[in-house]
From TrEMBL:
The protein's name in its UniProt record: DUF1016 domain-containing protein
Pfam families referenced in this protein's UniProt entry, alphabetically: DUF1016_N (PF17761), YhcG_C (PF06250)
Organism name: Butyricimonas paravirosa
Coiled-coil features, chain-numbered ranges: none
Superkingdom classification of source: Bacteria
Family matches, as Gene3D superfamilies: 3.40.1350.10
PANTHER family (alphabetical): BLR8175 PROTEIN (PTHR30547:SF0), UNCHARACTERIZED PROTEIN YHCG-RELATED (PTHR30547)
Amino acid sequence: MKDLTVSRPFSEEEYNALLQQAVAVIESSRLQIAKQLNTIAISSYWEVGKLLAERKLESEHGDSVVKRLSVDLKSRYPEMGLSPRNLWNMKRFYLQYNQDDTKVQQAVALLPWGHNLLIMSYNLPAEYVVFYANEVVTKGWSRDMLRHALKSDYHLSIQTNEKSNNFRATLPIKQAEYANEVFQSSYNLGFVDAVEPLKELALERRLVKKITTFIMELGSGFSFIGNQHTLAYNDKEYRVDLLFFHRRLRSMVAIELKIGEFKPEYVGKMNFYLSLLDKLEKAPDENPSIGIILCAEKDHLEVELALQDIHKPIGVAEYQYLLPKNKLQELVTDEIKKSRRKK
């Protein structure tokens, strides 16, 4: 039978989307392999630390033993980082967590060694150790990102943030519950490596450039469709900053980026975009599109009032550059003042 498929040139936009998706697949595979190797290494460190603890080697009388052990082990395993200092750290690692429950031990076993040393230096309660371990594993935090988070008491700011959305009023009960699990009240964008506030388009470009890391920050299940996604209707074009698809929610997810604090008029614009997405692009077997407005700061009560009579599922979340909120707001305010002076 003759193939009737019509070939056509691949547009630059289609190629870039294909490239980004292929990179995401390969990076995900590489990450899984790295995780397995890391878990094996951490398990070895745990067992070595246990040996030192059981033999009650202390720095006063055990220093020479540990130094000799380091020399002999490094001659056999030069790539493992078996310096005397690291051997003592292994003992400290074992002693710090061997009395904790399995949940804590499993959490730290997944972390790179440098991340573990950093967390140990803060002597956190077990629940916060698990919190930071989960953040590192699910979002791919570098050691510098973790350090900034620890310094800014990131775990405390997350706990005090209230989720601002209308999911329960606009989605079926089960989907609303799952959407509340998927979407957070605050997102950590420290990986964009910004030393000063970014304008919306610049922030968008950095997120696209590091889309794999951003997807890890969003959580599992997200697939990137594109940025500045065009919606053509009634001889006009409208553009969504970032568009994703979530596999388990079976919904497109539109994200709008705002450099300042939340404003009620943002909701109307997002509501319009969601109407266009559902009218023009939503497949019959898909659920309604969901909108997330990502801004530097939000007032929960103001968001609640703005969403009161909106019938499309919309959430409002804050982003952080892993700086204290008052510092971030100060930087954003300075940027706005500079912009006004230029005008």
